[in-house]
Design goal:
The protein is mainly beta. About 0% of the residues lie in helices and about 50% in strands. The chain is built from no helices and 11 strands. The strands form 2 sheets. Strands 2, 4, 5, 6, 9, 10 and 11 form a 7-stranded mixed sheet that branches. A 4-stranded antiparallel sheet has the order 1-3-8-7, with no helix packed on it. A hairpin with a 7-residue loop joins strand 9 and strand 10.
Length: about 120
């Protein structure tokens, strides 16, 4: 059974930095896509950044130039370096994983979520 274990959230002032980590525990295969979504109070969950095992990266427009996603090569661990944080980045950040299947729809995994609060 695959479980996404994440860490690294917290409280930071505007302009500060945080680094999130996510590890897919229990996976005997390489998870194709790892990344993060976030959900602010009263809003829908939205994509933040994802990275495939082949190196393909996608960012939300709102975080481009401030956030960097990376992965340990050949491993199911991803990192999200968040710099120049803004109050609007405040949200619960959920690690996300996707396993492709030869037939059928991809399997999605979610972490438990970690709170990121940006405030002065």
């Amino acid at each position: 059974q695959v479980q996404l274990e994440e860490s690294g959230g917290g409280f930071v002032q505007p302009g500060g930095s945080l680094r999130l980590s996510c590890t897919a525990a229990g996976a005997s295969f390489v998870i194709n896509k790892l990344g993060w979504h976030r959900q602010a109070a009263g809003k829908q969950r939205e994509l933040v950044a994802t990275m495939t095992a082949g190196g393909g990266i996608r960012y939300a427009d709102s975080v481009k130039g401030r956030f960097i996603i990376s992965r340990d090569s050949g491993k199911n661990t991803a990192y999200l370096q968040m710099d120049n944080l803004k109050p609007e980045d405040t949200a619960v950040y959920y690690c996300f994983g996707e396993k492709l299947q030869l037939a059928g729809t991809p399997i999605h995994y979610w972490g438990q979520g970690t709170q990121v609060t940006v405030s002065s």
